[in-house]
Design goal:
The structure is a single chain. The chain is an alpha/beta fold. The protein has a single domain (9-215), classed as NAD(P)-binding Rossmann-like Domain (Rossmann fold), CATH 3.40.50. It has 5 helices and 7 strands; from the N terminus they run βαββαβαβαβαβ. The protein has helices at 18-29, 52-66, 91-119, 138-157, 191-201, and strands spanning 9-13, 33-38, 45-46, 71-74, 122-127, 163-170, 211-215. Strands 3-2-1-4-5-6-7 form a 7-stranded parallel beta sheet, sandwiched between helices. Helix 1 packs across helix 5, helix 2 (52-66) runs parallel beside helix 3 (91-119) and helix 3 (91-119) packs parallel to helix 4 (138-157). The longest helix is centred in the middle third of the chain and has 29 residues, at 91-119. The protein is globular. The chain starts with 8 loop residues before the first strand and ends in a 10-residue tail after the last strand.
């Protein structure tokens, strides 16, 4: 299926990370012009999602160079391994993690969506995680759940504008993902599998919006109502 992404401008924030880099590669293979952004070295532009001014400068630069942003992928957040498990229920760590992940998503999406609304089309995809479905790590669960809630609320706000917002929720991401799914655990995905799902959601052919979609088997042992 042709995803009709040829010549689309796709901004991938967190584009030097494991998933972001895979998304950039897949989107380019589909014909998109991809701009990667990150806080550190190696991306096409510097963008710190925790800093409003940095976000505004980064978005302005993309628009100046390319004239529009058709697709936005936000995969920028500190890895789960950097969260201190001994402080999982520490309000300070939880609040910082929510800002680093969910509020980063919202800052960047809010900076881009007026331009998409004016164009009458656009696709925004956030990367959360299946920790949102699990107890046992308050920090991990809350930061991911907050992103999902923010994205679904933004999707409702943008309903009817031509701008769709969705979230992809990977379980563990590893180059050697297996099909095994233990009870009380999510299934694994490779970076390529996550990227394929994300890029599909960037397609103007899809009318999907306000969805939170698992990559890898959705958390085994719970019913979603």
């Amino acid at each position: 299926m042709d995803l009709q992404l040829t010549d689309h401008i796709v901004l991938v924030v967190g584009g030097t990370g494991l998933i972001g880099a895979a998304v950039a590669e897949v989107a380019r293979a589909e014909g998109a012009t991809v701009v990667t952004a990150a806080r550190g070295e190696g991306a096409d532009l510097r963008l710190d999602g925790a800093d409003d001014a940095s976000v505004e400068r980064g978005i302005a630069r993309v628009l100046e160079q390319h004239g529009r942003i058709d697709g936005l992928v936000i995969a920028a957040a500190p890895p789960a391994q950097t969260l201190d498990p001994a402080r999982a229920s520490d309000p300070a760590q939880v609040a910082q993690a929510v800002d680093d992940k969910a509020m980063t998503f919202l800052r960047i999406a809010n900076a881009v969506n007026p331009h998409m609304r004016e164009a009458g089309s656009g696709r925004i995809v956030g990367l959360s995680g299946q920790n949102a479905l699990m107890t046992g790590n308050i920090t991990g669960a809350v930061r991911n759940a907050a992103l999902i809630i923010a994205a679904e609320s933004l999707a409702d706000e943008l309903a009817g504008t031509g701008v769709n917002v969705n979230v992809v929720n990977p379980g563990p991401v590893t180059a050697s993902a297996t099909g095994d799914v233990a009870p009380g655990k999510p299934g694994e995905s490779t970076p390529q599998q996550v990227a394929d799902l994300v890029v599909m959601l960037l397609s103007p052919r899809l009318a999907v919006s306000s969805e939170s979609i698992a990559s890898g088997h959705r958390f085994r042992g719970a019913v979603a109502l």
